[in-house]
Write a structure and sequence with these properties.
Layout: H1 7-13, H2 22-27, H3 36-44, E1 47-51, H4 56-61, E2 68-73, E3 80-81, H5 83-95, E4 101-103, E5 109-114, H6 119-128, H7 154-169, H8 176-182, E6 213-216, E7 230-237, E8 240-248, E9 267-272, H9 277-291, H10 302-309, H11 311-322, E10 342-345, E11 351-355, E12 361-362, E13 364-365, E14 368-369, H12 370-380, E15 384-387, E16 393-398, H13 403-412, H14 422-425, E17 427-429, H15 447-461, E18 470-473, E19 487-493, E20 496-501, E21 512-518, H16 520-537, H17 544-550
Parallel strand pairs: 6-7, 17-18, 18-19
Antiparallel strand pairs: 1-2, 2-5, 3-15, 4-5, 4-12, 7-8, 8-9, 10-11, 11-16, 13-14, 15-16, 19-20, 20-21
Helix pairs in contact: 5-12, 7-9, 9-11, 10-11, 12-13, 15-16
This protein binds siroheme (SRM) and iron/sulfur cluster (SF4).
Amino acid sequence: MTDKRAKNEIIKENSRALRGTISAGLGDVITGAIAEDDQQLVKFHGTYMQDDRDVRGERAKKKLEKAFSFMIRLRIPGGVVTPSQWLLMDKIATEYANGTLRLTTRATFQLHGVIKSNMRRTMQAINAACLDTLAACGDVNRNVMSAANPFLSKAHGEAYELARKLSEHLLPRTGAYHEIWLDGEKVEDKSGPARADVEPIYGTHYLPRKFKAVVAVPPANDTDIFAHDLGFIAIVEKGKVVGWNVTVGGGMGMTHGDTETFPRTADVLGFVTPEQAIAAAEHVVTVQRDWGNREVRKRARLKYTVEDRGLEAYRAEVERRLGQKFGAPRPFAFDSTGDPIGWLQGPDKKWHLTLYIENGRIKDVPGRTMRTAFREIAGIHAGEFVLTSNQNVIITNVAAKAKAKIEGILAAHGVSLTTSSGLRRNAMSCVALPTCGLALAESERYLPDLITSIEDILDTAGLRDDDIVMRMTGCPNGCARPYLAEIGLVGRGPGLYNLYLGAAFDGTRLSKLYAQDVDHAKILALLRPVLLRYAKERHDGERFGDFTIRAGYVKATAAGNQFHADVALAG
Ligand code: SRM
Ligand code: SF4
């Protein structure tokens, strides 16, 4: 009988609990790469092999190997780091990576450009900062995000605690991570998985595909709850979390031209008490482990399991394993997905400063030495830094007397406390070129310029300070969650994008394809009349995404909660 399983299933099966030949590969000085199967396995350890796509052609001409290096992604549940951890990450970025820190759309750090010979040293330095990268990528539960600032209220603190517990509970148990990266001695033991490697939740084959969990505290939907496999929405009564609405089946990724793949917003499964939350999460995971598609990786996310089996069946199976029924979902309402930029005072009178970080990239450029500013702030700051799912940073728990000092440092380094427009304030892009191997078009390197051009239109329309959510990705995988942006741009090829409109400002409705294969000039030409009309004809408080539907530019996402982004053109 032929084995129909996806190749990755066999790689996992033969990996000796995620060891593969990674260790041997790290020691091979002939190449900057590692073996093909190990390239899949290292993801579970929080790293991807990449190459610098800017120099691919030139190196090929010279018959040189590609310029291989590694991207390393950290696991930071809830995004909270201490000033000393910040300083260590900053040091690591200088010593081993490309001198920048990249904040991701899942509220963690990524390092880019780490060469193979520095990989162990980098992982050890991360470990010395009491941080790790385990399960930041791979077919497991990844970094768990929670409502941006855990210090805003008791409920926010409880959301953060849940994120931390979920992350710990769903971590792989394999000893491979420590062996390979931190304690090189046991790595040559080929006798098979050690006892500690038994994976009570995942089993030998882990999950069929990546798995993402988030926690939100209404009315803020900053973690974009409907974009993820599993979500917990806080139900707060008298300032206390009385339980959580559990969501399942969200996801962004699709492939151009493949109608079997699509973005989908999550469904609400039901209500659980705080005591039931972790067990409910575990069983949502184990049902996906057992029911998820292990033959076609493109159809292996939980969203497709829910589509194929039905929400009712999924709920019934989770309830059977849990031995309890979900409660009826409790009412909740969201009002936004963005971060409130600027100073905010918490309930205990401490101050919190949310800084907009353009596309999450913390770097020094002439006139704007943001990385140095953060280093100086970390040197004097007594609170924390919180990374947000909008690629921003919150400097938390600042005493009133320290505010001016922090502002002074930022000003001295050319870092503004505000943004040039409401559009920029609400914009995100994925990394794309030159490191992402899947990018079809620019994203991080292009979006800021595009926004500058659109700001001219906003000025004409009188919309400069209006909050409009815009997100861009270099391919349809959706890493900046573009299908949940009021203006979404998704890379199709060099300089060409699909333009999506009509998503809800609060992240509850997907957008629709408005125009295909448009370049810079065409994007501006298409957006200009829509923005000008919006400025003139909008109802009181009407959001841009809602207007584009009312005015007939696109139709609202039809009944149900998924669409095929390529065929949904204008309705
Ligand atoms: Fe992503 C793959 C970057 C958030 C959906 N993503 C990738 C890779 C690793 C490319 C690859 O597989 O070779 C990108 C590395 C680029 C680089 O050079 O750094 C990459 N994804 C990112 C980040 C860094 C974007 C950013 O600019 O912040 C985000 C890191 C998150 C983290 O810290 O864990 C990132 N990726 C997302 C999100 C948003 C989210 O999770 O909230 C999504 C959409 C939600 C979802 O999962 O459905 C997302 N990434 C994907 C997919 C499509 C998955 C699918 O179901 O089809 C891929 C491709 C894949 O897995 O095959 C992908
Ligand atoms: Fe790469 Fe595509 Fe993700 Fe952008 S959306 S980082 S291009 S995989």
